[in-house]
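Prompt: I keep going back and forth on a fold encoding question. Comparing notes only helps if you start from a blank page. Show me how you would write down a chain together with its backbone fold. Please set it down just below, with no commentary around it:
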Amino acid sequence: QDVEVNNRTVQVFNPSLGQFQARTWRDIRVGDIIIVHKGEYFPADLLFLSAENEEGICYIETMQLDGETNLKIKKAVDETKDLRHDSIGNFSGSVTCEPPNSRLYQFTGKFEAMPPLVQAPRVLPLSPAAMLLRGCSLCNTNRVYGLVIYAGHDTKIFMNSTQPPSKRSRIERTVDRIIFFMFGLLFSMCLTGCIYFAWWTARYMPQHWYLGVDSSLPREYDSSRPGVVAVTNFITAFILYGYLIPIALYVSIELVKVVQSMCFIGLDRSMYHPDTDTPAVARTSNLNEELGMVNTILSDKTGTLTRNVMEFFKCSIGGVAYGAGVTEIERNNAER
């Protein structure tokens, strides 16, 4: 997916040729002037220069940034909103802004407009309303022109990105610690054994003449080469003591989780929805043992845990009441 995004093309203005040329997203640099068409995503954090309308405004969708689907209005800088495809070469100026940061709704900077864009040099403040952030898409506007302010990993969407949390259960983390401890114990045993065996071979092996130390012994028992003796003995001990690490424990735990998810969870009548004939479906078996620990669900939207179900009570058509339900007004009148 990263390769696909980096190889997307965009039209970038070439000052030496005076025309736009196709360039990939990964080749975009700060200071480039680019064109973004309707339905396309912004390849970098841009300063909104102009659009294909007289007002110099555009509509963008920021769903990838904040999850909102409603369109937001952006307004171009007044001194540049009249720039078009044939006059974009008249753009002249510089932008001074804050270093890259993760604040999506804040931006501090100034634009120094120079001739021939304006008659006299002028310094203009820049607001977040003139910023087009990477990750947003252009809507209801044919095309816009923008100046690259932040590119690559300096964009605000990258500054806000974090590593996904590790979805590992407590049992798996405990087993990992046990495995690391057993591996450390195994390494210590093998290291101690090979050092002692190399020392014993170098000191006492020549005294055991009946073992044929002069010719018939292999090199892993050669008293004149203690380094080779230590390495070969370490490998031998590691193979012999390798059963100390319970690798089969992982396999046993995974088998238990698969049986739980397929048999117990899928056939649990307490988690069966009879209205839609839908049983519980376990998408993954990594967090089976964590299910019983959930006691609170936090939601940031009131509509997340509700159902949009409407029931007909009563209506009035031409002065005739239809329906046998009792409305809230009738209920209040009856209580009085």
Remarks:
- The chain has seven helices and 14 strands.
- The CA atoms of residues 38 and 329 lie 50 Å apart.
- The longest strand covers residues 143-150.
